[in-house]
Design brief:
With 334 residues, this protein is of the alpha+beta class. Among the domains are: 56 residues; 162 residues, Heat Shock Protein 90, CATH 3.30.565.10. Helix content is 58%, strand content 13%. The chain is built from ten helices and seven strands. A five-stranded mixed beta sheet has the order 2-4-5-7-6, covered by helices on one side. Strand 4 and strand 5 form a beta hairpin. Helix 2 runs antiparallel to helix 3 and helix 4 runs antiparallel to helix 5. The longest helix has 54 residues. The radius of gyration is 34 Å and the shape is elongated. The two termini are 39 Å apart.
């Protein structure tokens, strides 16, 4: 702040030094004016000016230091109190602008809440005809047509589910319910949902669970597993997907391994970014780039580490490292 103060008062300080140098110069040229008393007066003036400058620095920067320390949260109570006419002008302007921003922020927040509620309501409304459509598809005698329609129905179902959880993700802390969950019971519905797609692509799913009882939020863990399994099925063909659970260093680890196309090494650092799709298959318009991003965000809220190991052309292994029981104190304390 000292540097800024000197810059602000630079013209005044330079004018002060110019006047005193002029006085000394005149005394030096005019023999009738004694030089030593003039130098003494200039020295005393300089001392008094330094004290004055220091006191003005303390007073004038107090207001601006308050702004420098003001958190950007639109809290008007944190605005520093003005002590001079110019500071009052700034204070009034900041009050007006802050009030305007608060009103706009509240308006936008209400609009977003309303949009979210409408979208959630629409998703729930769409689920009813989607369920009826699935029942109708089940009655179709032609197996080939039935399989094709089921696949398209599943795509719509998964996209709606993804959109629903994406909107809920912003308020996940209010939606968490930590309990003991049987992993096998959690996995079966997810595998059954993808069964027709797996049959169509010639994919088998092998489940080997050494650890079945876990402590987590069942709904959100199911969502994470759904995204990982969907990705595994989407990018695999005529191969098996292995789902394992085991214990490593006091942590339960869930692994989903596929033998699909794998991930390009240059894509690895970005696969969990929002909207990112593979650079090797960039023309794949069916990819939204949201599945892994949402899975990662949900996993972070559950204190689950989501890791991946992959070799291009060989396959990928996604690992969910669940927190131990002591770490759930952080979640239940949210």
């Amino acid at each position: 702040m000292i540097k800024e103060f000197v810059k602000e008062r630079r013209s005044w300080i330079l004018f002060y030094f110019f006047i005193h140098l002029l006085i000394v110069f005149v005394a030096f040229l005019d023999s009738a004016i004694p030089l030593k008393p003039i130098l003494y007066i200039v020295f005393l003036s300089f001392l008094l000016f330094s004290i004055f400058l220091f006191s003005r620095y303390q007073k004038e920067t107090r207001f601006f230091k308050g702004f420098d320390e003001w958190e950007n949260n639109l809290d008007l109570s944190q605005i520093p109190q003005a002590e001079s006419p110019f500071e009052e002008i700034i204070e009034k302007s900041v009050y007006k602008q802050t009030e305007l921003l608060r009103k706009q922020s509240n308006h936008h927040q209400l609009s977003l809440e309303d949009e979210k509620d409408q979208l959630l309501a629409w998703i729930h409304e769409v689920k009813t005809p989607l369920t009826a459509m699935h029942l109708i598809i089940d009655r179709i005698p032609d197996e080939k047509t039935k399989a094709s329609l089921t696949h398209e129905w599943l795509r719509v179902h998964l996209l709606l589910d993804q959109q629903l959880h994406q909107k809920r993700l912003y308020f996940i802390e209010n939606d968490l319910f930590i309990e003991k969950v049987d992993l096998h019971t959690l996995l079966i519905p997810e595998i059954k949902t993808l069964q027709s797609w797996c049959i169509q692509k010639g994919i088998g799913i092998d489940v080997s669970l050494q650890e079945r009882e876990i402590l987590t939020d069942a709904k959100w863990l199911a969502f994470i597993l759904r995204q990982l399994l969907t990705n595994a099925v989407k990018y695999s063909s005529q191969s098996d997907i292995h789902i394992r659970s085991l214990k490593k260093e006091d942590h339960i680890v869930i692994e989903i391994q596929d033998w699909g196309r794998g991930i390009d090494p240059r894509d690895m650092p970005r696969i969990f970014e929002k909207g990112f799709t593979s650079t090797s298959t960039h023309q794949d318009h069916a990819a939204t780039g949201m599945g892994l991003y949402l899975a990662k965000k949900a996993a972070e809220s559950l204190f689950i580490q989501l890791c991946v190991q992959s070799t291009l052309g060989v396959g990928s292994t996604f690992s969910l490292i669940l927190p131990n029981r002591n770490e759930f104190v952080k979640i239940t304390g949210m």
